[in-house]
Hints:
The structure holds 2 protein chains of 2 kinds. By secondary structure, chain A is an alpha/beta fold. Helix content of chain A is about 50%, strand content about 10%. Chain A folds into 2 domains: about 1-115, Glutathione S-transferase Yfyf (Class Pi), Chain A, domain 2 (Up-down Bundle), CATH 1.20.1050; about 135-280, Rossmann fold (3-Layer(aba) Sandwich), CATH 3.40.50.11810. Chain A has a 4-stranded parallel sheet, with helices on both faces. In chain A, strands 6-5-7-8 form a 4-stranded parallel sheet, sandwiched between helices. In chain A, α12 links the parallel β7 and β8. Chain B is an all-alpha fold. Chain B has 2 domains: about 10-100, no CATH class; about 105-180, no CATH class. Chain B has helices spanning about 10-20, 30-35, 45-55, 60, 65-70, 75-80, 85-100, 105-125, 130-140, 150-155, 170-179. In chain B, α8 runs antiparallel to α9 (about 130-140). Chain B starts with 10 loop residues before the first helix and ends with a helix. Classes of the chains: A alpha/beta, B mainly alpha. The interface between A and B is large, with 57 and 61 residues.
Amino acid sequence: MKIGYYPGCSLTGTGREYDxxxxxxxxDLDVELExxxxxxxxxxxxxxxxxxxxxxxxxxxxxxxxxxxxxxEVVAPCAACYNRLTVSQHEIETNPSTAQQLTDILGEPVNSxxxxxxxxxxxxxxxxxxxxxxxxxxxxxxxxxxxxxxLLVRPVxxxxxxxxxxxxxMERIIEATGAKPVDWNFxxxxxxxxxxxxxxxxxxxxxKKIIDDAKLHGADVIVVACPMCHSNLDMRQRxxxxxxxxxxxxxxxxxxxxxxxxxxxxxxxxxxxxxxxLLEKVL
Amino acid sequence: MEHVVNHSSTLxxxxxxxxxxxxxxxxxxxxxxxxxxxxxxxxxxPNQVVRYAQLGFDDAALKSSTIWLCAGCMxxxxxxxxxxxxxxFMDAMRQIALEEKVAIGExxxxxxxxxxxxxIRKHGRAFEFGFVREYKLKTQNxxxxxxxxxxxxxxxxxGLFPHKVKDAEGIKKIFDKTE
Lengths: 283, 179
C-alpha cells in the first residue's frame, strides 16, 4: 500500500514524535509514504480566523501538489491540517466562484480526484487484522480514553467522518492492540486549540476538564490524533495542578508499542508527562 | 449604547456576503452558548453577539472579546437546530473587525494570529520560535512560557531556524493576491 503524505508543520517541530512514530509503524505495517514535494503550511487557525480566501488558498497549493504527483489518497495526520485541506477541497467542489478565485491565485485549476484521509481512516484501511497479525504485545491491561477533539469530526457535512458527538472508530482500532477503550464523555470536547500561546489559562481550563473526565472513567492513558491536542493535554498538564499525571500518547505511538517497537524509537520520551508507569504495564 | 442602522451595508449584510448565510437564520434558542466550551471566558455569549448583528448593534458585536476567544471548535455549528454555521460567522466577524479597524476586544489573540501568519508569509511553513518571538515582542509578554521553553529546546521540539519552502515566490503570490 502506498499513500501520499502531508506531514504539516507541527510534525516537524512540537509534534515530531508523531511523525517519528507514524513512519516506524507504517513501515512495519507495509505502508509506503510518498511525501508531498515542497509542501507548505495549511494556514491553520490563524488563516481561517482572519482571512477567508487565504485560508482556502494555502491548503489549495498543497492540493495542487498532490494532484501533480498523481496521488489517489493523501494522509494528513494532524487533525488541523486534515480539516483545512478537506474544507478547501470541499469549497472547490461545491462553490464554482471560489474555485475560480483559487485558480486565479494559483495559476492553474485544482481538481479533487483524490481523497484526503485522517490517521484513524488510514489505520481503518490497514485493518485490525493486520495490526493483530503483527502484534508483539497484547496491551490487555491498559484502559485507554480515545480523544478525537474537534477537527476530525467537524464540520459534519465537510469531513463526513464518524460522529460529531460520540465517535467510535478510534476505539475499534485500539481494540486491535488488546487495550480496553473506556466509555467517557469528553471525546470531542475542545482542548482550547491555538489559544495555547495568547490564552494559556483557557487551554489549561478546557484541557483539565478533558483529563479529569478520562480519570473519572478509569483511563490509564489518553490516546490522541492531533499534535495541537497533544501539546495542550501534555505540555500544559503541569500547569493544571492535578494530583496524578495522565500520559498522553499519539495513536501511532500506542499502536507502535503493541507492535513491539521500542518506546524511544517512537519518541515517547519526548513528552512532558512521563509514560513510564504505563510502559511498565505494557512491556 | 449607540444604535446606528446603516441600511446600505449593515454588519449582517457583510457577514452574509462573506459566509453565504444570513445571521437572521438564528432564532436565539441559545443552544450554541449552552455548549460553548469557552463561554465562561467571553464577555458576551455567542448567541448575544449574533443578536447584536441581527439588531444592528454592529459596534457591540465587533468589539466583543467573544469573536476572538471563539476557539473554532464548531460544536455550536454541529448542534444548531437552524443549521446556522456560527463558527463561520465568528470567522467573518474577525475578518470584518480587522478590515474596519475597530477597537479589537481581545488584542493578544489578534496579535498571535498576525505573528503566526507573518512567519508563513516569510518561510511558507510555521516556525514556532519565530512566531513566539514576534508575539512576545508585540505583546511585551516576555515571561510567558519560561517554564516549558527550555525543555522544548532540549527535546528538539523548537528549532532555532525555520524550515523554508523552496517555492517562496508561490507563497508570496498567495499572500499578495488574498490580502
